[in-house]
Amino acid sequence: MDVxxxxxxxxxxxxxxxxxxxxxxxxLLRDYAKSNNIVLLEIFFEIGISGRKADKRPEFQKxxxxxxxxxxxxxxxxxxxFSRFARNQxxxxxxxxxxxxxxxxxxxxxxxxxxxxxxxxxIERIIEWMDEYYSIRLSGEVFRGMKENASRGAYQxxxxxxxxxxxxxxxxxxxxEEAKIVQIIFEKYVNxxxxxxxxxxxxxxxxxxxxxxxxxxxxxxxxxLQNPSYCGMIxxxxxxxxxxxxxxxxxxxxxxxxxxxxxxxxxxxxAQKQYKATYKPSGKRPSSTYRHWLSGLMKCPVCGRxxxxxxxxxxxxxxxxxxxxxGYSKGKCEKPNGISSNTIEKEVISCIKNALDTRQxxxxxxxxxxxxSINECALIEERLSGLxxxxxxxxxxxxxxxxTLEEYRENRALxxxxxxxxxxxxxxxxxxxAPSGQHDPAADMLRKIKSVFEILLSDSYTYVQKNEALKxxxxxxxxxxxxxxxxxxxxxxx
Length: 494
Ligand SMILES: [Zn+2]
Description:
Low-confidence stretches: 281-290
Order of helices and strands: EHEHEHHEHEEHHHEEHEEEHEHEHHHHEE
Largest sheet: 4 strands, parallel
Bound molecules: zinc ion
Number of helices: 15
Mean pLDDT: 78
Strand order of the largest sheet: 2-1-3-4
Shape: globular
Distance between the termini: 61 Å
């Protein structure tokens, strides 16, 4: 029997007395997993959350979005009862069928085994029918979201390489010298059949840089090749409103944009076809290297190469991740300098906190600031405008009778609290420097560290955003296993 990978989901709501405790639910899931050859990669706990809508269950959302990701980390999700997985039948069927049909993930109730045979297939048919029904409803939702976006100016996000925003709320305009790079990428890929690595190397040899001022890598080329902005389209529904998490590509929606195209629609479509034809899914197992908010920042104290995070397994099959020197894995460095991501995460957070508490920080002053770099202000502003949409939606839910007045007030207060915190953060960032002559870079540095630290600790940012924010202030982090010391190398643009 094949080993399967799974997540467990444990939910206990505040308003029911007769339920099994989280510990008992967990035990049942572990027992079931053991006797069915399932390796539980993670158990998600939702304790004490009541309310009617699924989007209030952050752990559930986290689990579903991970289960749906293209890496296909798990084959099954185990729950004690289906009623733990969803609060009503409709929700349960929709999630189950989406997971099964689009992502090949089974939801299994360990106490209510679903019989095969006639009932099983009857349920299948109902699921198919529900699918259709739900996609109709979903498209209504999406359409509403699009109109909302359009009315407040859809072009707030940072535009990709090749475009620049000149006026707020207006479509981005083409930057000719960057657009040339985009054209080269598409033409080399489609006409010369050049691979992604080769294109990156080719661009680097010519001295071109990404929008972050960095050398091109395989994935930066890949990202550009898949970005429909370049043929004049807009990608909707790419991230979740509440969390900024990137959704599975199958859920993205393309519409015509107002920006000028850099390449033709035909060229774009051909590139997509070619990409799909050559792309090989990486298989069902979790990939051996995984991305992390520390990715690219950790450097080996011996050879200076990047430390990469690898997923390892304990003797009992439980996974954990571990940073080791990339050079060591390639036989080019004598020591692995390994450290578990759990430990290093805590160390880095406490080290940054220590700098903030003591207001003691060493840093390097850098000469110039690249014009195109993402800044924390833009990230925060993006979230502030997202809150506006959220507010509109909870108001609509209340008007349509989905939420009670109490729920509406509760939600509105939460949003207001979040907004105040964000505005404060933004204000601190935008506080002008002391008048020239008494310019205080150390204070600037601490202020930047503080705002990045808040991004790091918040659940509202993706690990990619956290990683990018850290890279705005940190050049590298060196952990030396032999002396157990950690040093963060900060920098500040003058
Ligand atoms: Zn090394």
